[in-house]
Amino acid sequence: MDTPSALTFADPSAIVDQLDIELKSQVADFGCGSGFFSFEFAKRVGAEGVVHAFDILPSALEAVASRAKILNLSNIVTKRVNLEKEGGSGLALQSMDWVVIKDVLFQNKNKKLILEEAARILKSGGHAILMEWDPRKSLVGPDAGLRVTPEQLRTLVEAANLAVEKELNVGGFHYAFLVKK
Fold first, then answer.
1. Alpha carbon distance 151, 106 (integer Å)
2. Which residues constitute the domain of residue 114?
């Protein structure tokens, strides 16, 4: 496996290769955007697994649904949600094996509530990937003042009764934690 380079954008396949994803897993992708992780997880969990791709933007969800059809991935369910509301995912308590939160926290005021929702829906022993922009200023990504530092993210994770298991090698302009419930 090639390791991501510091000069490239993160590769979802290389990142997911670092995880122990089982067939039939249930996944919630918070703020799925263009489906960066949704498609990779959908391939890994197999036809009997499900990826719930959530976003607040209808255009993002339409793009993910369209691409899923092209890729013949029938295990992606898209839904418009507001994750800054309590119970915002609409998923059942302890129903997910995985939660993915990529480039979401920096653009939301209520980061704690989003992480609490992840904790609420994760099964005991479930995992989350938290991926945010590297706090160092770069020409790519949001203003440095909006970025969540690794220290801030660790504090938020602990406040949501989750634990950072390890840092993932994502290279590029991001950092990521593997988090366990």
1. 14
2. 12-180
